């Protein structure tokens, strides 16, 4: 019998994975058993272009299923990327390691009880202009303007209620985040602060604004994913009451010399 603690953790992972998929939807979602293939031809996001195993017991025909998934990725001009969470079968992890796949970009999924979290920021009404939000996000992050249409399409395809939060200094965007309300949870996506203004409380302000909005609309728990190597952001979220739930990382085949 599975350990009760492990079962409880896996239940939390399953719930957060489900809301995360809805919060950041791919153009295509294809199932091979419990392995979910997510594809987005218009945007290079790893989360939108990855193979996501969702059952630790689904370990049949690993090599064959990877090969078939690789064909789907190749059809849109992308290499196969596998995203491993605690829901992935250990045998798949062992297979990738044994075949010399490269592990990269670990992320931490964190959550917070909003009754205990620091959500005492000022009330702020979210934007209704998706394009304005996306343009601000790209300006802050330094990502190319060519991603604008794809990002607008992604945000417009999110089915749960969303809140777009933007801080500005004059006409200059300084911080943004996207809040997604889903089943008593609010997820934070696209958090960004202008690089030369970091450490001045803007990240705290924009995150608190989104959490406060979520709480006022019935959210009881917040969640987010942050790069494991992003120490300042991890420290900020912990200060606001977030704690680690689980981690995930990506795998890709190593380039041959």
From TrEMBL:
This is GNAT family N-acetyltransferase. It comes from Xaviernesmea rhizosphaerae. Residues 120-257 form the N-acetyltransferase domain. Keywords: Acyltransferase, Transferase. The keyword Transferase applies. It comes from the Bacteria. InterPro entries: Acyl_CoA_acyltransferase, GNAT_dom, Rv0428c-like_C, YpeA/RimI_acetyltransf. Signal peptide: none annotated.
